[in-house]
Each structure stands twice: as C-alpha cells, then as structure tokens.
Amino acid sequence: MVRTLFAKILLWSVLAQLVTVATILTLATVYLPESQQAVDNAFRLYADTAVTLYERFGSKALDQFLARSGDDTLLRLTLSATNAGVRCGRKSDTTTGIQARGQNGSYCLTVRAKSGGLPESRESRRTRLQITILLELLSSLGLSYGIARYLSRPISDLRQTASRLARGDLSARVGGRFARRRDEAADLVREFDQMAERLAGLVEDQRRLIGDVSHEIKSPLARLNMALELARRDAEAHAPRQFARMQHEIETISQLVGELLTLASLNAATARPLDQTVDLGALVAGVLADMAYEQPGRADDLHFTPPAPPLLVRGDKALLARAIGNVVRNAVFYTAPGARIAVRCDENGPGRVAVSVQDSGPGVPEAALDRLFDPFYRVDDARTRRTGGTGIGLAICRRAVDLHAGTVRAHNVPPHGLAVVIDLPQVGGEVDVA
Ligand SMILES: Nc1ncnc2c1ncn2[C@@H]1O[C@H](COP(=O)(O)OP(=O)(O)OP(=O)(O)O)[C@@H](O)[C@H]1O
Ligand SMILES: [Mg+2]
C-alpha cells in the first residue's frame, strides 16, 4: 500500500509513461512490418520483372530496365543466375539479394544502395526498438523521480515542521529552501512559516507576561507578608482567625507566584546545564520518601518497585525530582486515602528509561488527557479548588522533561485510575554525587 505522496506521484508518473511506451510499441509492431513488407514486395517485383525481361527479350532489355530502375531508386541492380546451393540473401547493410525463379532457372537480383543503407532487416529493427524502449524507460524513471520529488518535497517538509510545532518546538520553520520557487506549494510553505512565526511570538509574549507579572507581584507580596507579621505581633489577640486566614492566603499566592516563576524560568532556559549523571531509581525513592514525610497518612499507599540494575539518566537532579514529585503529588492529592499508588522505574526500549506513576483514583476524561500538561489546565475547577491546585504542576513537569529530551504522557487505566509515564534517554557511566 503506497502511502507517501512522493511514492504516489512516482507511481502514477511511471505508469503514465509506461502507457505511452506501450502505445508506441503497439503502433510500431502494427505499422512497421507493413512498411517492411512493402519494401520486400517492391524488390521482389523488380526481381520478377528483371527475370521475365531477360528470358523474353535478352540481356539488352534487362540492362536497360535495371539501369532505369536503379536511377529512379538510387539503387544499383544486377541480376545473376544462381546455381543450387548459392546463397542469395542479405549480405550487408547496403547490399541484399532477392531470389527469383524464371522458366530457365533461378536468379538472384543483387540490390546495392548507391548512398546510405538499405531498409533495415526486421531483426535489427526490433533490437534497435528494444534498446530505445529500455533507454526511454530508464530516462522516464529518472524524470518521474525528479517530478515526484519536486512536487512532494514542500508537503513532506511542511508535515515534518508541523509535527515539530505540534510537539511544542516553537522554533520549527520550513525555512528558505523554497524561497526561489513560485507556485502554490512554495506559497503555502511561506505562509505556514509566517503563521508559525506569529504563533511563536504570541506564545512568547504570553510567557513573558506571566513571568513579568509574577516577578512584579513577588516584592509587594514579600512586603505584605512582613507587614502582616508586624501587625500580627501587635494585634493577633483581637482577630486570631482573620490573621491566620490572611497568612494562609498569602502563602497560597506566594506558592503560585513561585511556581509561575519556575515555569517562566524553565521556558526561558534552553542552555541550562544538564550535565549531572543521575541514578533514576534512587531519585524516585528520594521523591517518595519526601512525599511520605509530607503526607505521613498516605505513606502506606505508595508502592515502589526499584529497578534491579541502576538506571542512569543525564540532567539536572533537582529539576527531575521536581518533575516526578509533581506527578506523585497529584496521585496523592487526587485519589482518596487508601487508594494504591504504584510507582515503577524500568527500561523502556533500547536506550530509554521510564518512570510510571499509576494511581487508582478517578482518572480524567479521555478528552482532557492531552491538555493536563497545559499551564492552568484543571479538569474540574470546583474539585481542584478544594484541593488547592493551580494547574501548573504538570506544565512544569512537561517543560522539565522536554529539557531532558524526554516525553511525558498520561492515560487512564482500568478499572479506574490515571497513569503518568515519563520517558527519558538512558546513559551509561558513573553517578554524580551532588
Ligand atoms: N492523578 C490524577 N488523577 C486525577 N486527576 C488528575 C491527576 N493528576 C492531575 N489531574 C488533573 O490534572 C490537573 C492538572 O494537574 P496539575 O498538577 O498541572 O495542576 P494542579 O495539581 O491542579 O495544581 P498544582 O500546580 O498545584 O500542581 C489537575 O487540576 C487535575 O484536575
Ligand atoms: Mg498538581
């Protein structure tokens, strides 16, 4: 089954040329023998006439006939009597002999071309036709390849770039490869690049805005916190519940601003040093120990299967711990106490490792699975507000994993529950202790 545009154009172009060649071949096989036959018949007629003239009127009449016919046809004609066993047939490209029978014996009319060659024999004509067809097929194949490549290249480049954009690489462009081309495909490529440029600009503006606003809020928030502390010292006794509430809200906002700043800094970071060699199993165990400390009531729900040989990845230890921690925290927060949370760390195909966190909570609607990793996305606002989530945890996770050339995906598991799988490139070498 041909599925690429290139292969389809190539196939159709070759087919079209094959049909053309087959048509020429059919015409040649139908008409060429006829024209050959006509030449053969003419020579035979000369030979019969020459023999009759010779036998009836003698050699003078024969010579006159041969001379006149020869002048008219640019041929040199000679008639000779043949004995049994003497070959009378084609001798070279310029000479042939035609056998004719008379009343007194058999004769051979030798036909010599005065200039050029005689019409070709059927065999050599066929060989020449076959070579021509072969050459035609080869050149048509080359031409078809060129046409198919020319037509399909912008589309396949466009497809690759679109899929890079869809994976979040906002720098993806088809580029100036088709700058000198003037057709609809090249226009499409140019317009696509312009659209990608504009899109990347908008996303970049949005990211910068989030980063800038968070940064601007940070200082007044710190001052507010200090002012609250001072006010608390003097007047907490008058309104202890209100002060506690204010403190809680300030902490929530501080946490949100902190996460937003982390996300903004991760988005801006492309040249962050990711050069530590990290034992992934040990890292996951550490994240789970922290979680158990944070939520002692849920410690028994966390089940970890460590990898047998250590699995190493290269990157930023703190960032990886944060990415995995956010997933584990979600599993704890969005499932009821007692619900089993299985964490695994395994090899995942050649040169890859995966950390999977599978809970037995409610899962998420299928349509929401891809959006979980978008900033501020929350499946159910009311439920999440109760648990205090802001919708940034998984966005930070995805960005951190992206920076490590990895992928993160979520899927629902039967009978109910969510599994989040972080896939990373594996490396060999010594673990960095830091
Ligand atoms: N294990 C899970 N089970 C069910 N829903 C989940 C799970 N993990 C994430 N979600 C849903 O995905 C949404 C996004 O998660 P994310 O971690 O990005 O944000 P959050 O937990 O709401 O806030 P925070 O920024 O504090 O992590 C959550 O609001 C929740 O609706
Ligand atoms: Mg979360």
Automatic annotation (TrEMBL):
Pfam families for the chain: HAMP, HATPase_c, HisKA
Catalytic activity reported: ATP + protein L-histidine = ADP + protein N-phospho-L-histidine
EC number: 2.7.13.3
InterPro entries on file: HAMP_dom, HATPase_C_sf, HATPase_dom, His_kinase_dom, HisK_dim/P_dom, HisK_dim/P_sf, Sig_transdc_His_kin-like_C, TCS_sensor_his_kinase
Annotated Gene Ontology cellular component terms: plasma membrane
Ranges of residues in domain Histidine kinase: 212-428
Subcellular location, principal: membrane
Keyword annotations: Kinase, Membrane, Phosphoprotein, Transferase, Transmembrane, Transmembrane helix, Two-component regulatory system
Top EC class of this enzyme: transferase
Subcellular location: Membrane
Signal sequence extent: none
Gene Ontology MF: a single term: phosphorelay sensor kinase activity
Residues spanning the membrane: 9-32
Domain spans labelled HAMP: 149-204
Stated name of the protein: histidine kinase
Native organism: mine drainage metagenome
